[in-house]
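Residues determine shape. We examine one folded chain.
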Amino acid sequence: MRVISGLHAPLRRSPVDEWNDKADICNLYVGEFCVGGGLMSDDINERFARFLRAVQLQDIRPMSLQSEVKGSMPPQGSELQLEWRQSFANGDPIVSAPDLRIFRPKYEFTVKFQDAVIFVQISIFVISFKIIDPAAYGELWADEELRKIFMEKQIQKTIWPLFRQHIHDGMSRLGMSPVTLPWIL
């Protein structure tokens, strides 16, 4: 199957959805990944590297997995539209201890054929980080740009292999030919 991009509207959310609607919809292409934005400046790179040295990944756990067939897979060779979204629960990160931060990202993935939805995967994770350099963490977490990069890019890159597997497994278990998602570059 070939994967194409197109203009996609954001996924609709119910008013009671507890996840923030900050993430962008991004189109996936075979062999590349649309991350939005450009390269980070040297200053941002250096500060972000310092931030990453101030925290340590503790745990990643899936909390909810939902796969749903909405239609039939088209014939082999058909063009599919893929949409995905990352969002975070309100109040993230949770401060569960002075040196522990917990995030609850939600990933939504939709496969469409000729604008008709044929498969949806929703996965919610809990990912925790230990603060190993409180002074550096405090200074750098106050930087809104670094926070945004960490939440929208770093957590995404950390979770992506697990989410890719959820999509593959979900489609396979429901009798569909799985769509293999590309690596994040």
About this structure: DSSP finds three helices and nine strands in the chain.
